[in-house]
Amino acid sequence: MTLTQSSPRAATTRPGAPAGRRRGHRRAGIGTLFVTPYLLYVLAVFAIPLGYTVWISFHRFYFTAPGAHAPSPWVGFANYRDVLTDPVVGRSFLNIGIFLVINVPLTVVLALVLATALNAKMPFRSFFRAAYYLPYITASVALVAVWQFLFGSDGLVNHALGGLAPDPSWLVNTHLAMPMIALFVTWKQLGFFVMLYLAALQNVGKDLYEAASVDGAGPVRKFWSITVPGVRPATTLVTVYAIVTGANLFSEPYLLTGGGGPDNSSTSPVLLMYQKGIEQGHPDFAAALGVVLVVLVLAVSLITRKLSERGN
Amino acid sequence: MSTTVPTSGAAVPADAPTGSREGRRGRAVRLAVLLVGAVAFLFPFYYMVVGSLRKVTAGDLSSAAPSGLTGGNYSAIDGALSLGRSLVNSGVMTAGVLLCTLVLGVLAGYALARLEFTGRGGVFAVLLLVQTVPFQLLTLPLYVLVVRDYGLGDNYAGMILPFAINSTAVFLFRQFFLQMPASLFEAARIDGASELRILWKIAIPMARPALLTGALLTFIGPWNEFLWPFLVTKNADMQPLAVSLAGFLSNLQGTVSNPTGALMAGACVLAAPAVVLFLLFQRHFTHTNIDSGVKG
Amino acid sequence: MLRRTASALTVIALAAGTATACARSAPDPADAARSRGPITVWLSNNAQELQWGERMVADWNKAHPDQRVRAQNIPAGKTSEEAISASIIAGTSACLVFNTSPASVPQFQKQAGLVPLNDFPGGAKYIESRSGSLAGQYRSEDGKYYQLPWKSNPVMILYNKKLFAKAGLDPEHPKLATYAQFLATSRTLVRSGATDAAIWPAPSSEFFQSWFDFYPAFAAESGGSSLVEKGEPRFDSPAGRKVADFWNTLYREKLAPQELYPGDALADGKAAMATVGPWAVAAYKDKIDWGVVPVPTSDGRPASEIHTFSDQKSIGMFSACKNRATAWDVMKFATSEKEDGAFLDATGQMPVREHLASLYSGYFAKNPAYKPFADQAQREVEVPNVAGSIDMWQAFRDAWTRSVVFGRQSPSSALHDAAAKTRTILGEY
Fold it and tell me: Is omega for the bond preceding A49 within 30 degrees of 0, making it cis?
């Protein structure tokens, strides 16, 4: 999406053009051959499943043993009605909202602060960069295990807090479970955004800072009036990325809060798709939920993009 | 936007007025901020390693100190989910994804960038379209297709298939090949070199750093992936480590004497390969196309 | 090299693409029913059960070298139901699964995953002669048996004598008969600091968790009522509400934690009591000094009047099985009077046979610890064998966690809502 803007179209000279007609044909055959695996792949892993999802979502459907033919009658929008009237589905979308409200501002602020601090000749600069990037490249499952241990009711954090520890504890508290997931994801991905902002900071002209210094602006004002607007594209990317992450949350609620608990207070649409579709045997409901989710995600990303374009 | 961002590795600090009093104070504040950040990022890792080595892994304050050390947790987790087997499964899955992504991605990317054929515009449109639909929507039908119709449940091919070609990677490789001077390819063609030869002898050597970055970024995905292999592998002998460790996390902890320690040991083993690769090739992780993970 | 790799990968991609066309098919039922040969069976991962199963399979293999049986653990998964369901879809289930939950049978049946045992000559008669009057409740709605009722684990309250003594309670005569007594005892246990939790069932919302908190208490309080009877939910009733209030009090006063314990709380000494079946006798033998009492009722009825949940498991034959004649013979072999006796001996779990206590009187005389469980096995309640049963249990569980465990709704109104949802589900199927 954002990538298309920057594709260096100028470089697209006509490949194979001077080679003459006969030769061009042979090359064309090779081109088709080179992209064939990709196209077959798209068909098998993308197009067929996509069509299948939409088809399932309009039928009464359940998985059967291979070779068994079960009737799957057309039910119109019945599955969509079930999805949209299910309070747990509502809760899962609300949870994405909670996730975004916590994750986006926190990521923007912390990443920008750390990137600004890193953006200078510093001792141990590469050490810091490596440290921030570490959670990003580590498996969720491993990190969830540590967080569960740290934030369990008998964990280190509660021992350190003593009487101030929340009750019920972090991960089993209906008010804290979802914010904890948002915090976990923010922590895990922050390093990536620090690097992104660090790169974006290089694009902010040095002359702007020099001019501001001449005008007598302090570091804080320089930060707000030059740095923040200068890295706006990166901030948009944080938002879009957060929407995608929020819509895809699975392993965190599945593992960190024991299956979207307590009482569904940290459930997510993808977790629900798994629970309904595979654990409880209602793939029709899950397919409809998936379609609703994707339509919503695409709509929200589009709006975000439009808003940020207007902002520029 | 993002691809035009210069490499942060070559970053020239924008404002580093050293020497002045303001500068020195600024430096101290920066360093303090960075240190606090580093502690917040590294402490859980430290705690994980210490927890994995302690005889008794509890949550009290003294538990953060490395004392009463033992390697027992590693053998405990090995006994509970046979680490070697899980690591091999993770490795095969990751290697398969890497190989497919690189080979097929380079082929398609090269064709899109440097070859003319009917329907090229259409393929490019498909490429862009595929990137906008989240994988999660496809999870359920893919699951039933792969497991029932393709018959690939509990099978490496089934684990690899959904990740075998990464449209983002195809896109990136196309970009790399586009940025190379066209005259090079034309000269080779006039000399009568076949396209495969041009690709192998000219394009790939020139794109080597980009390919390395692509490979490294592709590595983390399947190595850390949980949902998909969790769905398609029910046989414990086929589960990659992320899946078997999650299984241990949710219902096998009763089987060992120090479950938390064993869990931390498993987490260390799972984290180690990605961390080591990262530390070895750090420079390449923070390369130009850092945002390629965004579309992952 | 590159060319070869490229063409190989093209072939792989092509194969994947065309695999859709040649979907796998199930074995032909008529051929399979007569066919004999090697089969695979899945056993639960309970240590004692595994021991019995492996020995049983070895005996079979010695006598039938041409029809070898391979025993494996049920594949990993969050629950065995989920793993079995996945294997049905994939067409990779074992021939026999020695741990099929009757609650899942309607769903497996709908997925065309199970073989009706009536297909075998004398199939129904074998089941009915083995289990007698108990067999009827395992017949599916179409009148066929899709499961062989194998063993039950009538659940009771097991308690840790040492923790009771530590709290200053009489470990030989615990006061746990009425709700008031049970709550008072629980308060003493927790407030004295003897234990973290009086009792620690899983507070999570998997559909089957209600079998170990609500359902036994409801069976006792209602005098043997099932969740659904004659097409009507039975839990939105005075008995159901009393049970819900009782558990709600335990959670509200933090006598039962809202957090999932990652292991066995009773074995680890974190909880003083647990709702368990006789399998626990062998499992806890070397871990804790335990006593056992019946499930409490509001008015403290005598033990001889108390019903409980059976926690029964069946043997199912799955449609992926090619050598079904062998599978049927193995099923009969494993549930013969001799093997049932050996199973009881090894695991302490009760084969679903009529007159169990008299049939194996020698065993119960030798093992007095099992006596209360054997008595309890006379008064068991099963999960209802109706289509949509998992949906009902899920609806019930969601209402339970919301209200009883987390107090976000009053238990009585949550039960009412769950009953309404259950009626909808019953209407749909």
Answer: no
Nearest CB partner across the interface for A68, out of C9, C26, C390: C26
Three-state DSSP class for residue C313: strand
Query: C239 pairs with which residues across the strands?
Result: none
Mind listing the domains of chain C with CATH numbers? 29-152+312-381 (3.40.190.10), 156-309+388-428 (3.40.190.10)
CA dihedral A170, A247, B229, B107 (to 10 degrees): -140
- Does pLDDT of B250 surpass 80? no
**Is domain B82-295 in CATH 1.10.357.10, yes or no?**
no
Cβ of A65 within 8 Å of Cβ of C111? The answer is yes
| A262/C258 touch (CB, cutoff 8 Å), yes or no | yes
Residues C115, C321: contact at Cβ < 8 Å? Answer: yes
Contact check, Cβ <8 Å, B236/C262: no
Q: Which two tokens stand for residue A166?
A: 């929340």
Cβ atoms of residues B291 and A237 within 8 Å: yes
At residue A66, the pLDDT reads 85
Is there a contact between B244 and C89 if contact means CB atoms under 8 Å apart?
A: no
- Note the pLDDT of residue B249: 83
Closest CA to C110 of C382, C387, C385, C384: C387
Q: What share of chain C is helix, strand, coil (3-state, %, to 5)?
A: 50, 15, 40
Region(s) of chain B under CATH 1.10.3720.10? 82-295
- Of chain C residues 204-263, which have a CB less than 8 A from chain A? 204-207, 257-260
Q: How confident is the model at residue B286 (pLDDT cuts 50, 70, 90)?
A: low
Q: Determine the pLDDT at residue C83.
A: 83
pLDDT at B156: 95
Q: A275 to chain C nearest CA, in Å?
A: 10
Which residues are paired to C160 by β-bridges? C290
Rounded Cα distance, C55 and C40, in Å: 15
Measured from the Cβ of residue A309, the count of other Cβ atoms closer than 10 Å reads 9
Residue A58 has pLDDT above 80, yes or no: yes
**Fold observed for domain A83-311:** MetI-like fold (1.10.3720)
Strand, coil or helix: C258:
coil
- Could you tell me if C37 and C322 are in contact, meaning their C-beta atoms sit under 8 angstroms apart? yes
pLDDT band at A220 (very low <50, low <70, confident <90, very high): confident
The domains of chain A are located at 83-311
Burial of A218 (0-12, 13-18, 19+ CB in 10 A): exposed
pLDDT at C317: 97
> Pairing state of beta strands C228-229 and C148-152?
unpaired
Of B153, B235, B254, the CB nearest to C264: B254
Most confident of A86-95, B188-197, C365-374: A86-95
CB-CB under 8 Å, A52 with B141: yes
What are the angstrom distances between the C-alpha of A135 and each of A130, A146, C25, C147?
10, 12, 45, 49
Residue B22 Cα to chain centre, angstroms: 41
Which pTM was predicted?
0.85
Is 70 exceeded by the pLDDT of residue C252?
Answer: yes
How many Å apart are CA C169 and CA C189, to the nearest integer?
A: 8
How sure is the predictor about A145, in pLDDT bands with cuts at 50, 70 and 90? very high
Among chain A residues, CA nearest to C409:
A263
Taking one residue from A and the other from B, the number of pairs with CB-CB distance under 8 angstroms is 377
Task: Identify the residue with better confidence: A248 or A28.
Answer: A248
Q: Six-digit token pair at A257?
A: 């809060």
Strands C39-43 and C69-73: parallel
C16/B145 Cβ within 8 A: no
CA–CA gap between residue B179 and residue B167 (Å, rounded): 19
**What is the ipTM metric for this complex?**
0.84
Please give the Cα distance from B296 to B223 (Å, whole number).
14
For range C109-129, the mean pLDDT? 93
